[in-house]
């Protein structure tokens, strides 16, 4: 039986549970095949043993934070181990949101605050290189995806292949080698799932608290079928 590991980095129980449910739904996996490890609660340990692929979820953490807690430093060290197992080994890994910054930093790229995006749907455009990418090749040339981030990759790591951009954030997706992908956007949630997540994080500085209704309306208008297809393509190819 295939086994996919979801590494969750969300201290909030509701958000962690919602993220698992969203990945489960979008990927087409069953609960026996999708194993969740809450990295903020427990070190990575031997969690990579016996898995066919790994999905890195989002997080309220930011790579660019000047003062990092011991917990965040440990998490980023653990994610560095995952990156090494993928880039230097053959473990298929999909890094999302917070994960794209961790991966880019680990590989010598740069992350800053110049291209943060508010919570909601944005239009992405695939690059020419996406036509030959195993995951992106079957996606439409332009499509909507959900974002919501305070930082982004400003310089790709050496050897990384840019696969998708948006007008407000030049680096939305890249690949390194043959087993490692990263997306700034969230590939897994439906509009309703992201609305529920926005409610959990309404006091985390992604938007003003009194803007929640407007954010919910913006999310509800999103058409995000393509990103979910991307996640399913990753699972079907490697698991």
Automatic annotation (TrEMBL):
Keyword Acetylation belongs to the record: no
Keyword Transferase: yes
InterPro entries assigned to the protein according to its UniProt record, in alphabetical order: ChyE-like, Class_I_gatase-like, GATASE
Pfam families: GATase
Keywords annotated in UniProt: Glutamine amidotransferase, Transferase
Residue ranges of every copy of the Glutamine amidotransferase domain listed in the record: 48-192
GO molecular function: transferase activity
Source superkingdom: Bacteria
NCBIfam families: PRK07567.1
Name this polypeptide is given: Glutamine amidotransferase
